[in-house]
């Protein structure tokens, strides 16, 4: 993770854990920038499980504690300003169904106690937020996907204080501990009595989600929020919210592909619409995106011999082809139940490959399809093992009879790589990195 030394002008990377770790949240306290606390998930072997990290040298080195050795992960952490030894972490147990999790440490993270509200364990939900009062280490708010709970005794007992909103973040105000804010769907939730009761403040669009709430540390009137549609702020304790997105441009992008040659064409999914550029992305024009086309997670391939020939593979396995730059389309159920990747033979026009999975759960195989007529017809062969999915294809540009496919197992941990050197007649497993 980055180690700031000059207010973010330059960054150095420091190792916090193995490559199998994900940091979900990190906090510091004012006046003590040498200490920081982080949570997420990690593993040495087996399933991912909850991890807690701590540094006392500004992030140069980190101590590690795997809080739970069964399948679990953490999303949020809150350290009490009045007593930094009091720490709360929130996340989920990866059971079926998943259930919320909150834990408390009273000794700076050396030992932990599960204080999850028993009422929340009946939810198919996760713990998305936790905040401890800046002045009272026993007063804590815990938000799940569906509810907000409040405890006045460090998590020994809980009261359900809101069950009407999904909550994605929750924070006490350091400037006024009676103020608390939470981010929900289409609104900010506000409490004027330290979390006992809540009111909704609309943010202007019911489709937007408030992902982050950030009360000012020094001015109780100021709160900032980050939504799926931009930035808003309030200067009256959250009574009114004002959008302030001047100079910002919000674009949801997806897959991108480019043709070859001296004048390449770029194709990219922009705000769920397939678009193209002939001037290296300076300007874009919209193609025709059929309403049935699932642009989320789609794989795009441009014919290396003709930039107007375009093919797209959906994650559902459906295959689309266009010969006029994406303005008219033909669709084919490529015989895949799950799409993974699409590739073109760099030396033979019209020869395409698609990869993914065929069959249904319990009887599915990683599969590779080949077309010699730009996708009009296909022949398939199973590659890999039962219960696997092929996600990527690599073709040797000099020796196209040599190909690699890579993927994962459905029901077991681990990845797979297979290679052919004789044009797909035989395949051999390649030892994967540990």
Report on this model:
The strands form 10 sheets. The protein has a 4-stranded antiparallel sheet with strand order 3-4-5-6, with no helix packed on it. It has a 4-stranded antiparallel sheet with strand order 7-8-9-10, with no helix packed on it. Strand 32 and strand 33 (365-371) form a beta hairpin. The chain has strands at 2-4, 11-13, 22-29, 32-42, 49-55, 63-66, 72-79, 87-93, 99-105, 113-114, 127-132, 140-144, 148-151, 159-162, 169-172, 180-183, 187-191, 199-202, 210-215, 223-227, 230-234, 242-243, 253-258, 266-270, 273-277, 285-286, 299-302, 310-313, 318-322, 330-333, 338-344, 352-358, 365-371, 379-386, 388-395, 403-409, 415-420, 428-430. It has 434 residues and is mainly β.
Uncertain segments of ≥5 residues (pLDDT<50)? none
Using only C-alpha atoms, the radius of gyration works out to: 26 Å
Characterize the main sheet: 4 strands, antiparallel
The number of domains is 2
Total helices: the number is 0
Q: Which sequence of strands runs across the widest sheet?
A: 3-4-5-6
Bulk shape: globular
Quickly give the structural class.
mainly beta
- Report the CATH architecture of the largest domain: 7 Propeller
Average pLDDT confidence is 85
What is the fold's blueprint, element by element?
Blueprint lengths: L1 E3 L6 E3 L8 E8 L2 E11 L6 E7 L7 E4 L5 E8 L7 E7 L5 E7 L7 E2 L12 E6 L7 E5 L3 E4 L7 E4 L6 E4 L7 E4 L3 E5 L7 E4 L7 E6 L7 E5 L2 E5 L7 E2 L9 E6 L7 E5 L2 E5 L7 E2 L12 E4 L7 E4 L4 E5 L7 E4 L4 E7 L7 E7 L6 E7 L7 E8 L1 E8 L7 E7 L5 E6 L7 E3 L4
Antiparallel strand pairs: 1-2, 3-4, 4-5, 5-6, 7-8, 8-9, 9-10, 11-12, 12-13, 13-14, 15-16, 16-17, 17-18, 19-20, 20-21, 21-22, 23-24, 24-25, 25-26, 27-28, 28-29, 29-30, 31-32, 32-33, 33-34, 35-36, 36-37, 37-38
